């Protein structure tokens, strides 16, 4: 294809200035900093933030503890609204149901609004395989779809692209050269996607919350594309993780207070939509047919697991990513799963029920506790990271070096004086992170997110080289670890018995 | 696909789904280590913290706060005294912006503005007032969409619109400019004041679409640069009206 040739050539020309490590790191840093600050201001302005967090946590805990009741109730009420509800245990099942609907409707195109679940399923590929065009309509998602990449941030998926790269991509799509001007680029996308919305047979969305008592689903967004997708096409499919439930609209007030503030620092996203079934008989818009696919795909594995059940409380706000000094340095694609950052480091192995597959990147957490502090529903992500490490070692999959990492960690934790030193904090973190001088997998700054494969000039940089910077940032942005967290982690470590840890930690500590 | 009718196909899917549903719920209960729960559990933490439920601003402050929030999000707020002023404002704006097509909800509260007669420069249409029209397509080419707000919330600066046969979801979404008329007595302080009404009304009373709109459509996806009007209306007017009734 000549356009892709053109694309490759021009991008190559720009590779020197744009596709470099510094840009990615600076972009991620800048964006996460902006979001983090926004969240801080918004939560402070709102006031009583911890009271709200605690309320959010309680609602999520209560819902998950009674999930069979609430999920069942949701399904019944959604059916009463006229929606068709489906259950999928695995990603494959969810894909099969989606394809069946698509085929039955003889659909040629599907317009989608942002959905992490859809990323989990690799649905676009599946649709493509049966000749159905899947169009991502969220501006950032559309950009990375054109680039044939995956999102690098839950909230800002194209965080790693600059405006020149975006102009290249959109120019190829437009068949003319578009200037790297944000307004013009967005204007082009608006026009282009308008056509897609009006033509599409099926609209597909994720679901932020599902209200059990009325069978309604709730979407938060700023652009309006989720509204488009649920308003214009004749058939609508909602992909929903089985844990998205809240009991009532009253509970939605708490989630609506926590989610936008934590995600972007907004008091509310521009649109919050509650959708209860397909269009009513006499309505002149909205879908004629609505399908809701409720997906497990590893989620239920966390149920009844005292260490990980709280993962299901996650409302996918991205605040832990923005708070994480490691994420700020390496960006989302280094995590190698659908979900990145601290939540991704725990969720990816948890959903895959496979601690062995647990990537080294999960080690790249400093355990500084910033993710917990940021989390609007108080998920103890650092506790979970420690548990994961312990389980890996217990399963005989940790090697000596990692055991040493644990030892280093235990040693520091066991000594309050040493712990107080930020430099030491960096040091034990380094022990945890580094294996053989660098993190081996997916840490090459461009691997996994660069589809052009024309980056010979990139310096290979080991994580160790960057660690001092990370450590510095942990120190300057997170401050010392919350003593409460430190105490809990220590307790956990002491309680742990390493069957194959090669004296993983010294009892004297 | 095959000759199977939609109806049969959907029935077959529902049968499968119901079977699967039981397995799902049984599986969840088993993992949680107890029997299935079949009646609504006591929910001690329902809704916002108690102190919040009592929080309420007086009307003038609600209006000030709404205005500040809505403007901070990039929207425009205009306070008008009555219906005539609303009619005048919309006419002037439409002329100023050379609007060619104006689509309004089919509501008495809007038809009494008599835009059809007084605004000869533009074509004024009323949502779903005749069958056999593709109203979504009409909305997509409209320059102005005009809606009555069902409610507004001051604390978040949001307009709330509910769908109905005579009130299209597209009217507040597809046109380039959105004009929302908000009689001030529909303005409350908190989101929760509105949300609990949906609980109280119950499922049967809910419309297909309930939308909270807190400014113009926006995105910061390109280099964090704020872009307005990505998919939804880029220009939004909230017209706060002191006494809308005659
Ligand atoms: S773990 Fe907490 S902070 Fe991270 S995305 Fe989930 S809810 Fe947000």
Automatic annotation (TrEMBL), chain A:
Keywords: 4Fe-4S, Electron transport, Iron, Iron-sulfur, Metal-binding, Repeat, Transport
MF annotations from Gene Ontology: 4 iron, 4 sulfur cluster binding; metal ion binding
SUPFAM superfamilies registered for this protein in UniProt: alpha-helical ferredoxin, NagB/RpiA/CoA transferase-like
InterPro entries, per database record: 4Fe4S_Fe-S-bd (IPR017896), 4Fe4S_Fe_S_CS (IPR017900), FTHF_cligase-like_sf (IPR024185), Helical_ferredxn (IPR009051), LUD_dom (IPR003741), LutB/LldF (IPR004452), LutB_C (IPR024569), NagB/RpiA_transferase-like (IPR037171)
Gene Ontology biological-process entries: lactate metabolic process
Transmembrane parts of this sequence: none
All copies of domain 4Fe-4S ferredoxin-type, residue ranges: 304-335
Name recorded for this polypeptide: Amino acid dehydrogenase
Organism: Paenibacillus solani
UniProtKB/TrEMBL annotation, chain B:
Pfam families named in the record: LUD_dom
Top-rank lineage group of the source organism: Bacteria
SUPFAM superfamilies: NagB/RpiA/CoA transferase-like
Domain LUD: 63-241
PANTHER family hit by this protein: LACTATE UTILIZATION PROTEIN C (PTHR43682)
Protein name as annotated: LUD domain-containing protein
Protein source organism: Paenibacillus solani
């Amino acid at each position: 294809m000549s356009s892709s040739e053109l694309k490759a050539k021009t991008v190559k020309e720009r590779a020197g200035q744009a596709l470099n490590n510094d840009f990615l790191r600076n972009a991620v840093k800048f964006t996460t900093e902006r979001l983090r600050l926004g969240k801080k201001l918004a939560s402070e302005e709102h006031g009583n933030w911890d009271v709200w967090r605690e309320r959010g946590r309680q609602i999520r805990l209560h819902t998950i503890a009674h999930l069979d009741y609430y999920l069942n109730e949701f399904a019944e009420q959604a059916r009463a609204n006229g929606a068709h509800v489906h259950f999928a245990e695995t990603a494959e099942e969810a894909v099969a149901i989606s394809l069946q609907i698509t085929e039955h409707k003889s659909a040629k195109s599907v317009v989608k609004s942002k959905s992490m679940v859809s990323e989990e399923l690799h649905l676009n590929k599946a649709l493509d395989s049966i000749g159905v065009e899947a169009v991502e309509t969220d501006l950032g998602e559309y950009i990375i779809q054109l680039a044939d990449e995956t999102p690098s941030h839950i909230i800002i998926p194209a965080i790693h692209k600059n405006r020149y790269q975006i102009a290249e991509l959109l120019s190829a799509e437009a068949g003319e050269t578009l200037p790297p001007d944000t307004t013009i680029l967005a204007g082009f996308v608006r026009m282009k996607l308008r056509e897609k919305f009006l033509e599409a047979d099926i609209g597909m969305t994720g679901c932020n919350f599902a209200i059990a008592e009325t069978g309604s689903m709730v979407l938060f967004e700023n652009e309006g594309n989720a509204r488009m997708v649920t308003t214009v096409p004749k058939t609508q499919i909602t992909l929903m993780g089985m844990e998205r439930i809240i009991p009532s609209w009253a509970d939605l007030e708490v989630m609506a207070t926590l989610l936008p503030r934590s995600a972007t620092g907004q008091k509310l996203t521009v649109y919050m939509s509650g959708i209860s079934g397909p269009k009513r008989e006499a309505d002149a818009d909205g879908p004629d047919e609505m399908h809701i696919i409720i997906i497990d795909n590893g989620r239920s594995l966390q149920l009844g697991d005292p260490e990980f059940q709280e993962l299901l409380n996650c409302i996918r706000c991205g605040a832990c990513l923005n708070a994480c000094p490691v994420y700020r340095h390496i960006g989302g694609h280094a995590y190698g799963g659908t979900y990145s950052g601290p939540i991704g480091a725990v969720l990816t192995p948890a959903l895959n029920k496979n601690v062995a597959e647990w990537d080294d990147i999960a080690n790249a957490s400093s355990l500084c506790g910033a993710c917990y502090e940021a989390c609007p529903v108080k998920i103890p992500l650092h506790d979970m990271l420690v548990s994961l490490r312990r389980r890996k070692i217990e399963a005989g999959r940790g090697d000596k070096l990692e055991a040493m990492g644990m030892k280093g960690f235990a040693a520091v934790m066991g000594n309050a004086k040493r712990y107080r030193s930020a430099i030491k904090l960096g040091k034990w973190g380094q022990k945890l992170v580094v294996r053989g001088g660098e993190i081996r997998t997916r840490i090459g700054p461009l691997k996994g997110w660069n589809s052009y494969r024309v980056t010979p000039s990139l310096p290979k940089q080991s994580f160790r080289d960057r660690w001092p910077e990370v450590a510095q940032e942990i120190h300057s942005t997170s401050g010392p670890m919350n003593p409460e967290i430190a105490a809990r982690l220590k307790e956990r470590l002491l309680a742990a018995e390493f069957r194959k840890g090669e004296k993983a930690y010294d009892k004297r500590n | 696909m095959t000759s199977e009718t939609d109806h049969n196909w959907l029935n077959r899917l529902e049968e499968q789904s119901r079977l699967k549903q039981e397995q799902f719920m049984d599986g969840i209960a088993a993992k949680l280590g107890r029997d299935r729960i079949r009646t609504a559990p006591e929910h001690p933490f329902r809704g916002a913290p108690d102190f919040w439920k009592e929080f309420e601003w007086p009307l003038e402050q609600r209006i000030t706060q709404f205005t500040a929030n809505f403007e901070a999000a990039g929207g425009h707020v205009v306070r008008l005294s009555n219906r005539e002023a609303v009619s005048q404002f919309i006419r002037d704006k439409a002329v100023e912006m050379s609007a060619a097509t104006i689509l309004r909800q089919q509501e008495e509260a809007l038809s009494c503005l008599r835009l059809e007669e007084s605004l000869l420069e533009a074509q004024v249409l009323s949502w779903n007032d005749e069958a056999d029209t593709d109203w979504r397509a009409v909305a997509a080419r409209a320059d102005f969409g005009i809606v009555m707000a069902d409610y507004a919330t001051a604390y978040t600066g949001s307009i709330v619109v509910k769908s109905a046969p005579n009130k299209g979801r597209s009217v507040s979404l597809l046109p380039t400019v959105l004009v929302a008329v908000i009689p001030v007595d529909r303005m409350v302080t908190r989101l929760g004041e509105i949300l609990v009404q949906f609980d109280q009304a119950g499922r049967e009373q809910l419309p297909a679409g309930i939308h909270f709109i807190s400014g113009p459509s926006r995105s910061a996806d390109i280099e964090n640069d704020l872009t307005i009007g990505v998919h939804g209306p880029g220009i939004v007017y909230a017209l706060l009206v002191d006494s809308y009734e005659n």
